[in-house]
Amino acid sequence: MTFAKACEAITNYTSAHESRIKLLGEERVAYPLQHIEIDNRLIWFAGALDKKYGTNAFYVHLQRDANAVAHSFNKRWNNNFSIIKAYAETMLFQRLEELMPQDRLAICRDYVDTVNANITSFLSNKPQKMTIHLEQIEA
């Protein structure tokens, strides 16, 4: 079961997965009151989130085993809208055709570590936060 699916059972909040993904600027983070948004790209909008919600929101950092996440991203190199491909090509200036399999996995691990570090930094001054380790959730 996904976290988004589990949130459907919460009756006093709305919830959605990547509901505003194609929107720009302030609209990208304009969530309704009493809403839970599940979106692994939100960290790239940390400035907009902080500006709009600051310390008034309750933030949840969903974590999964970093090695498992890296291996999952490593399967997505050929997807047109792959964030790992975009990270490698545009942030790290790598030529995909020159990467060895071990290089690709190393880039995936770097991406996971970078995102987790960015989230930790973003949450450092937020009083209302929690971390959920997905492997520890019981059905």
Q: Which terms would index this structure?
A:
two-stranded parallel ribbon; 139 residues; single chain; 5 helices; alpha/beta; 38% helix
Characterize the structure shown.
With 139 residues, this protein is of the alpha/beta class. It has one domain. 38% of the residues lie in helices and 13% in strands. It has 5 helices and 4 strands, in the order H-E-E-H-E-H-H-H-E. The strands form 2 sheets. The chain has a two-stranded parallel ribbon. The protein has a two-stranded parallel ribbon with strand order 3-4. The radius of gyration is 16 Å and the shape is globular. The mean pLDDT is 94.
Compute the separation of the termini in Å: 8 Å
Principal-axis shape equals globular
Widest beta sheet: strand line-up? 1-2
**Global structural class:** alpha/beta
SSE map:
Blueprint: H1 3-7, E1 14-17, E2 35-38, H2 46-53, E3 59-63, H3 66-73, H4 83-91, H5 101-123, E4 129-133
Parallel strand pairs: 1-2, 3-4
Q: Summary?
A:
The chain has 139 residues and is of the alpha/beta class.
